Every structure is written in structure tokens, then in C-alpha cells.
């Protein structure tokens, strides 16, 4: 196969309207498995068997497949519309089951510059159009697990209602979600704020309307607007409102309980009953009191059906609620957060008169557990050795039973989707239902760093929020607990390796003093106890591995040698970008705004050297992996290179904005490293790769958006030419190879925004989703921390992604030839055994052989 030559591509560039050419890439997820984040909502379509959707708070929506895998539906979302990955509600049409709608937007506060939108699809989420709302939507705000706040009239499916946050009230569409107007007669917009005295605006915005539920039994005709509609509102006073005239007038439902927030309002048509779960918090983390009620429409009676607490009293609110449509009167409810000893789910087969629960105390501290665990789809999620395993889960707002299959249930937790296809075992003896991870295909982790190491067992190392990160030995099978960076069960924000001793690694994390080292390529880690009070940020390890510098996000950069106490580097500004030369143990680099800094004595003394002309933000410094003194730095004014150890820089032509980037395996033997990253080249933002040190560029992101570009991370594979890793903030890790063997997602975005008759704006965006491959494997443990990312990194994306089409084929191949050498020391497994500039052993201890990875690197494998 003839590979596209960058030179040829450049020659063709003028014909392509001066934009850099594109190259076809085949992108798919690096499999972590099991989601890895909060699942706030799951909905089954009531009329099409097997059709279901799940929504995430930071990574878009998914559709369920018959084999229990999930297909992502929003992979073309990029900058500047990154907030579309926050899904605050989802609605599946009971009449035309091909129609599905999303209410999207990340935050209703200043963190999100964009208004929200209602996205609509007539092909089950394969392609979307959207209407921009005149206010923000909060898919990652408090109360995101309540709902659903977007609902379709079951009799007249052209009618939709959306319950807004922030006091914006109730909105209605009568044309399948194209145009929207405020329902002025609905005045109870919800006064509840998660914490009005908290100085953080995140806690102060009213959660607003909670859910909209139709009484499908009401109305003589089943083809005109359903007259009776219930609306739940986040308010401690009256919180349930009803209209009996299709939304013209509204009144508080008489006799209702007050004092709590109604999280779910589920109508059981066969029983003519509305079930409601309440909590004293908005969720998803909080809630210490709550109740469960039913409102019987036949008798107008309210009945408290709160299941009995396993302890003396309730210490949790209630979240998810499910009815079994095949068995009227069979219902289930989840404690939103029973943090200890575990989450609780109850089931009743008599409309809540009596309940059984998924576990019970059998004389403290013993518990009877009426479940067994199947974590085969994501073994890392369960740690069988954990002292406090949360088998059942936490943050349980989404709980559903398949309307066509009483055995099939799903529920969302802070970490994954659990459920099974044997739920009726709950009602038999012994009661023993399976809690199976049912989130295959969902990748929701928030990636903070990626590293393709020169050496060691890992193809990739990832740092992420919540789950910590992983040593990735295989890109396509779910992760194990063993390969999780779980020393502290928190987030990893940066990882670095020692250039001359690449098995030596350091990483830093989200917690104070979270610094640890590995000398086996990331298999095992040891805490370094000298870490001051630093946290978060980036870390650099000297070429020989003895000096660590850390640029935390809560103070000045600091320096330590031989893991002695850290000292402040006062010469470097706070939050400076930092890097270590890969060959010279004393050479370090720093950059901030337009200033580059160099230390030649092991990061003790620093001098301001060159100016990065026109930059106001230095983003990332990447040294040449094998040559001392050759260093690249990306800025908001493009990409710069120095070949004199940072004394002077040359700006790379054509690149006007540089984000996260990396250097990796060259295209051919002897060629310069391949460079790839988030860049704006010739005025077009995207992911670009250059195989000739920045002379020519090809755009490689196809129609993938990867969310907010400035939150994303890039690693270029050290050994496999052309293989690029992209870490996202909420859609996990992707890897791409230059190949058109499977067609790229063809996504045509018609961004003609036409004003509708109301204040909302319509946009048409067409997307073809990408099917995530389904791979199955084995079992797990739950981390004790709640798994949800609050976006911290951006409000203003620096890189804008646009989409065009591509047509060229390149096949990436790794040549691994075996070499032998005589005499001298033998290298150990994973050790380097050859490459340009290598002077160490060139033969391996038995049974390993020295295999060429690239011209610069051979390894004992
Ligand atoms: C609300 O925020 C204030 C100020 O941060 C804090 O002191 C208080 O504990 C918070 N209340 C709750 C219920 O979390
Ligand atoms: C609702 O009330 C009617 C009339 O009292 C009663 O027959 C029915 O059993 C009640 N349904 C439920 C689910 O409580
Ligand atoms: C449930 O089934 C598993 C596996 O068959 C078994 O180990 C466990 O003891 C059973 N639990 C109960 C309560 O029967």
C-alpha cells in the first residue's frame, strides 16, 4: 500500500483551498471498561423492545445494543460546543421509536460559556439536529440524576416538555423539538439551591424543575395532547404540580408531602398510581433523609411506602425508582447514597406494602447478601480484597426494569452500570440476583495525562481523575485491578519517565502530597514522602531519574533530589510548564506566558532565556526523546522549537495555536520523530501529525470532536509509527491508526443556524456514531470515592475543531526484527538493547530477544 507522503500532500495543499490535507484515521476507544464515571440517567423505550439509552454527565449519551454493549452517540462533539457532552435529560419517543431527544449543556454557571440545546434525532441517535435554548443547561450540575426533565407526550408525540434549571421554568415544543416556547402559566420554577451559603457558584444555582410525567390514562382520545401532566420541582415546599388540561393551568397536587426534593415521579398506568422518591438533597452525592410515596389517582390517596431502613433510622435519601410493566405492583427503589456499608436497593411485589432488600444485617457486622457479582466486563471496578467494597454502589439515581423483560434490569452508579438478566431470582428462593457490570462500550473517564513509554510492559500509561489511571498492556481488553494506579484511589494528573532509565517513572495526583515513583515501568508504585503540600499539576523526572521537579496547581514549582525534602524553585512562575531533558541529567526546561527558562545544574539555578514571540500561554514542553538540547514548546501563538537547549527558538510555520502534543515513533528509519497534537494549522483546528519536524502537517481527527480540545491530552506511540492516543475529559481514551480499512465516521455538519419562531435557535448537525468494539473479559472492585468529574480545566477552549472529509490510505506497520549480539552484559526483560545512540547491552537475558521498535529503540521482549 502506498502511504501518503507528507511532501505530496503539501504539494496538493494549494489545490485544497490552502488547508493542510487530512489523512484517514481509524479511531476507537482504548478499553478501560465499565464506564468509569457517574451514570445519571437510563431510559427504556416503552414500546420498542430492547431500545434503551444511557446518559452521562460529561461524556455524551449511549444507545443499548442487543448484546448488552453500548454505542456512543455524540463522538463528533468538539470545541467550541464541548458542553454538548453534558446530558441533563434524555427522552425516547413512545410513538415513533426512532425519535430520541437530549437536553445538553454542561453548567448553568460561568464555567460554561455556551447556552444549552435540545438535540433531536429521527434515527435513534445516529444523526442529530439541535435547537439552541436561550439559557444554559446543567448536565454536570448538582441534581443531574433527578428526572427525566425532558418528556414526550405519549399520545401526541409532537409535544415535548423540558423543565429548566436556574429559574427558567417549563418549556414546551409542539413540533418535535424544533421550536420551543416558555409555558408562562407554570410559575413554580423551584427555589431549592444545593447550598445557598457555599461561596462556590456551583452550589448556588437553583436545580429548578426535576421531572415531567404524563398520566397516559387520562384523556378520551389517545391521539390528542394528554391532559394530565405532573411536574416535579426542586423545592422544599409544594413540589408536585399537576395540569388537567394539557398544560394550560397548573396547581399543586393536594395532600402532597413537603420538605424534600422529588427525585423521580414514575407513573404506573396499570395501577393508576404515581410513585415518587424524595431526598433532602439534590444529589448526586448528598442526602441524609428521604421517603417514598405513592399517589393513587383512583382514590386520590397519598401513602407513605418508604421501605424500612436496615438500621434504626434512615440516613439516606431515595433516588432511582423502577416499575415492572409486565408485573403491575412490582416496584424497586434505591437509596441514593447509603455510603456505608453499601448502597441499598429494595423490591416490592405489592405496590410498596412490603419490601425486601438486596442485603440485610445478620447481627453486626455480618450481612446476608442476596446477590452475586459478575464484573467480567470491567474487572478493575471491583477489588475483592478491598476492606470496604461497595458491591451495590452509590449515587444510584437511574434504576430501570426493561418494560418487555422482567428479568432485565439496569441501574447507574457513581462508577458504572450494574444490572442483570436474572432479576426474577430476587423473588425466588434463595433470593440471589446477579449484580453484573452492564456498561460494556461506555468509556467515561476524565483523562489528565497519557504517556507512551519507551520501555516496560505498558503500551500506554494513563493518568485520570477518580480511577487514578492505568498501565495499559493491551488496548482492547478491559482493565484489571492489578494494573490500576490505585495507591491512593484518587486522580493522577501527570506522569513522567527518566530519559536514560525509562523504567523509572514518577506521577503526581489530585490529593495533597500525592507523589509516587515506579522503577518497573509502572507495574508497582511507591509513595514519596517528601512532597510538601503540593497537589495536582505536572511533574518532570531528570534523565537519570534522581531529580524530580513538580509544578503543582497550588503553589510554586518545587524540586527534590534523591527523594529528599522539596525546595521551592522561586525562579519559575507558578503553574509553569516544565520538562526534563531526556539525556542530560542536569538540563531542565520551563516556560510561562512568552518566557522560556533553562536550568543547567539540575533545576537549582534557572535563567530566563528565549522569548516565545507573541505567546501569552506556554502549554506544553516536549523534549526530543533521545537527543539532548532539542526541545519543542506549544503556545497559544503556535509551536516553537529549539535545538540549542532552549537558548533560542524557531517558530514553526503554519501553526498558529498549539495545545497538548507529543513526539513518537518516526515514519521511517532515520527520520525525525513523528509529532502530533491539538494544533491550528493553516487556520483550521484539529489533531495534526507531522513526520518531517513540522514542515508538513496532515489533519487526522476525521469527524471526531474529542470534546474540549484544551482539556485533552495526546501521546504519540513511542514504538508504533502513526498510532496516536487521545485522552478526553469524559469519553475516555481513544487511539487511532492511519487506516481506512474501516470507513471513518462521515459527519456532515450543516451549521446553518436559523432562528425559530421563539427565542430558541435551530442548528442542524448530522453525525454518524462510531460503534465501539465489544470485548468481554473478567471481574472487579469499587473505589470508595465517588466517581464524577467536575470540570476544572477550561472555560475557554483554545482550539476549535472543524470537520472535513478525507481520502487517503496509510498503513502503519511495526517492524520487529530480532537482533543478536555477542559479548558484554545482558539486558533484562523490557530493557533497552539497541537504537541510535545506545551504548548499553545489545543482547538480552534468556528467554528474551532484542527486538527493534524503531531506529532509536530496541527492547528485550
Ligand atoms: C454549605 O456551605 C457552607 C460554606 O461552605 C458550609 O459551611 C456548609 O457546611 C455547607 N452545608 C452543607 C449542608 O453542606
Ligand atoms: C388505589 O386505590 C383503589 C381504590 O381505593 C384501590 O382499589 C387500589 O388497590 C389502589 N391501588 C394501589 C396500587 O394502591
Ligand atoms: C448466590 O450464588 C452464588 C454463586 O452461585 C453463591 O456463591 C452464593 O452463596 C449465593 N448466595 C445466596 C444468598 O444464595
UniProtKB/TrEMBL annotation:
InterPro entries: CBD, CBD_sf, WD40/YVTN_repeat-like_dom_sf, Xyloglucanase_GH74. Residues 825-861 form the CBM1 domain. Residues 747-798 have a biased composition (Low complexity). It holds the Pfam family CBM_1. GO terms for biological process: cellulose catabolic process; xyloglucan metabolic process. GO terms for cellular component: extracellular region. Residues 1-19 form the signal peptide. CDD domains: Sialidase_non-viral. The keyword NAD does not apply. Residues 736-798 are annotated as: Disordered. Keywords: Carbohydrate metabolism, Cellulose degradation, Glycosidase, Hydrolase, Polysaccharide degradation, Signal. It comes from the Eukaryota. GO terms for molecular function: cellulose binding; hydrolase activity, acting on glycosyl bonds. Belongs to the glycosyl hydrolase 74 family. PANTHER family: OLIGOXYLOGLUCAN-REDUCING END-SPECIFIC XYLOGLUCANASE-RELATED, XYLOGLUCANASE (EUROFUNG). This is CBM1 domain-containing protein.
Amino acid at each position: 500500500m502506498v502511504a501518503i507522503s507528507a511532501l505530496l500532500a503539501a504539494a496538493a495543499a494549494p489545490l485544497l483551498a490552502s488547508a493542510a490535507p487530512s489523512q484517514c484515521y481509524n479511531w476507537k476507544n482504548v478499553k478501560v471498561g465499565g464506564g468509569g464515571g457517574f451514570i445519571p440517567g437510563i431510559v427504556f423505550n416503552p414500546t420498542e423492545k430492547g431500545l434503551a439509552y444511557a446518559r452521562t454527565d460529561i461524556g455524551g449519551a449511549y444507545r443499548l445494543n442487543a448484546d448488552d454493549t453500548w454505542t456512543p452517540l455524540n463522538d463528533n462533539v468538539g470545541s467550541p460546543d464541548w458542553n454538548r457532552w453534558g446530558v441533563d435529560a434524555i427522552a425516547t419517543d413512545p410513538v415513533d421509536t426512532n425519535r430520541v431527544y437530549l437536553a445538553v449543556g454542561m453548567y448553568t454557571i460561568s464555567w460554561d460559556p455556551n447556552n444549552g440545546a435540545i438535540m433531536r434525532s429521527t434515527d435513534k441517535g445516529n444523526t442529530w439536529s439541535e435547537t439552541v435554548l436561550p439559557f444554559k443547561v446543567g448536565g454536570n450540575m448538582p441534581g443531574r440524576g433527578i428526572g427525566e426533565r425532558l418528556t414526550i407526550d405519549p399520545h401526541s408525540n409532537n409535544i415535548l416538555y423540558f423543565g429548566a434549571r436556574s429559574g427558567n421554568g417549563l418549556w414546551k415544543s409542539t413540533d418535535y423539538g424544533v421550536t420551543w416556547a416558555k409555558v408562562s402559566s407554570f410559575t413554580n420554577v423551584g427555589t431549592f439551591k444545593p447550598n445557598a451559603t457555599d461561596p462556590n457558584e456551583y452550589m448556588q444555582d437553583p436545580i429548578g424543575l426535576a421531572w415531567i410525567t404524563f398520566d397516559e390514562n387520562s384523556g378520551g382520545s389517545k391521539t390528542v395532547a394528554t391532559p394530565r401532566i405532573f411536574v416535579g420541582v426542586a423545592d422544599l415546599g409544594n413540589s408536585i404540580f399537576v395540569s388537567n388540561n394539557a398544560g394550560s393551568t397548573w396547581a399543586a397536587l393536594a395532600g402532597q408531602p413537603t420538605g424534600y426534593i422529588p427525585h423521580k415521579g414514575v407513573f404506573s398506568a396499570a395501577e393508576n398510581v404515581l410513585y415518587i422518591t424524595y431526598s433532602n438533597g439534590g444529589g448526586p452525592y448528598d442526602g441524609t433523609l428521604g421517603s417514598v410515596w405513592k399517589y393513587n389517582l383512583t382514590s386520590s390517596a397519598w401513602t407513605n411506602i418508604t421501605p424500612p431502613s436496615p438500621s434504626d433510622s434512615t440516613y439516606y435519601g431515595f433516588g432511582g425508582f423502577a416499575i415492572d410493566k409486565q408485573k403491575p405492583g412490582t416496584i424497586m427503589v434505591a437509596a441514593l447514597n447509603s455510603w456505608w456499608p453499601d448502597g441499598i436497593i429494595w423490591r416490592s411485589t405489592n405496590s410498596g406494602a412490603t419490601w425486601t432488600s438486596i442485603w440485610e444485617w445478620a447481627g453486626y457486622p455480618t450481612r446476608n447478601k442476596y446477590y452475586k457479582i459478575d464484573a467480567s466486563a470491567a474487572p478493575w471496578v471491583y477489588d475483592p480484597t478491598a476492606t470496604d467494597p461497595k458491591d451495590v454502589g452509590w449515587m444510584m439515581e437511574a434504576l430501570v426494569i426493561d418494560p418487555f423483560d422482567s428479568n432485565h434490569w439496569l441501574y447507574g452508579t457513581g462508577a458504572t452500570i450494574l444490572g442483570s438478566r436474572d432479576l426474577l431470582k430476587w423473588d425466588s428462593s434463595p433470593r440471589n440476583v446477579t449484580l453484573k457490570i452492564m456498561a460494556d462500550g461506555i468509556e467515561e473517564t476524565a483523562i489528565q495525562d497519557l504517556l507512551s513509554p519507551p520501555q516496560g510492559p505498558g503500551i500506554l500509561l494513563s493518568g485520570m481523575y477518580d480511577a487514578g489511571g492505568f498501565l495499559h498492556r493491551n488496548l482492547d481488553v478491559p482493565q484489571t485491578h492489578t494494573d490500576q494506579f490505585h495507591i491512593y484511589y484518587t486522580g493522577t494528573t501527570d506522569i513522567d519517565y527518566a530519559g536514560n532509565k525509562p523504567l523509572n517513572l514518577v506521577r503526581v495526583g489530585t490529593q495533597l502530597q500525592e507523589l509516587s515513583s515506579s522503577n518497573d515501568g509502572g507495574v508497582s508504585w511507591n509513595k514519596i514522602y517528601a512532597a510538601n503540600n503540593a497537589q495536582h499539576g505536572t511533574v518532570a523526572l531528570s534523565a537519570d531519574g534522581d531529580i524530580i521537579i513538580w509544578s503543582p496547581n497550588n503553589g510554586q514549582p518545587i524540586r527534590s533530589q534523591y527523594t529528599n525534602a522539596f525546595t521551592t524553585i522561586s525562579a519559575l512562575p507558578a503553574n509553569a510548564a516544565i520538562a526534563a531533558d531526556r539525556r542530560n541529567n542536569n538540563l531542565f526546561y520551563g516556560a510561562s506566558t512568552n518566557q522560556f527558562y533553562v536550568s543547567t545544574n539540575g533545576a537549582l539555578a534557572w535563567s530566563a532565556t528565549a522569548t516565545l514571540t507573541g505567546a501569552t500561554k506556554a502549554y506544553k514542553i516536549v523534549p526530543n526523546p533521545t537527543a539532548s538540547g532539542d526541545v519543542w514548546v506549544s503556545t497559544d501563538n503556535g509551536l516553537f522549537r529549539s535545538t540549542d537547549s532552549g537558548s533560542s527558538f524557531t517558530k514553526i510555520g503554519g501553526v498558529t495555536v498549539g495545545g497538548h502534543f507529543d513526539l513518537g515513533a518516526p515514519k521511517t528509519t532515520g527520520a525525525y520523530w513523528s509529532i502530533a497534537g491539538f494544533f491550528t494549522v493553516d487556520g483550521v483546528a484539529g489533531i495534526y501529525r507531522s513526520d518531517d519536524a513540522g514542515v508538513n502537517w496532515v489533519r487526522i481527527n476525521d469527524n471526531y470532536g474529542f470534546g474540549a480540545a484544551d482539556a485533552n491530552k495526546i501521546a504519540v506511540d513511542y514504538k508504533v509509527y502513526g498510532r496516536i492516543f487521545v485522552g478526553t475529559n469524559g469519553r475516555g481514551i481513544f487511539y487511532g491508526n492511519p487506516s481506512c480499512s474501516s470507513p471513518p465516521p462521515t459527519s456532515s455538519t450543516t451549521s446553518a443556524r436559523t432562528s425559530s419562531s421563539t427565542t430558541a435557535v435551530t442548528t442542524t448537525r448530522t453525525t454518524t456514531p462510531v460503534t465501539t468494539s465489544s470485548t468481554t473479559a473478567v471481574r472487579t472492585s469499587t473505589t470508595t470515592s465517588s466517581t464524577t468529574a467536575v470540570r476544572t480545566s477550561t472555560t475557554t477552549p483554545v482550539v476549535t475543531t472543524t470537520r472535513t472529509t478525507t481520502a487517503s490510505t496509510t498503513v502503519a506497520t511495526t517492524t520487529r526484527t530480532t537482533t543478536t549480539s555477542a559479548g558484554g552484559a545482558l539486558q533484562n526483560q523490557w530493557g533497552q538493547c539497541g537504537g541510535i545512540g545506545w551504548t548499553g547491552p545489545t543482547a538480552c537475558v534468556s528467554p528474551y530477544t532484542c527486538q527493534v521498535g524503531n531506529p532509536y529503540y530496541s527492547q528485550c521482549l
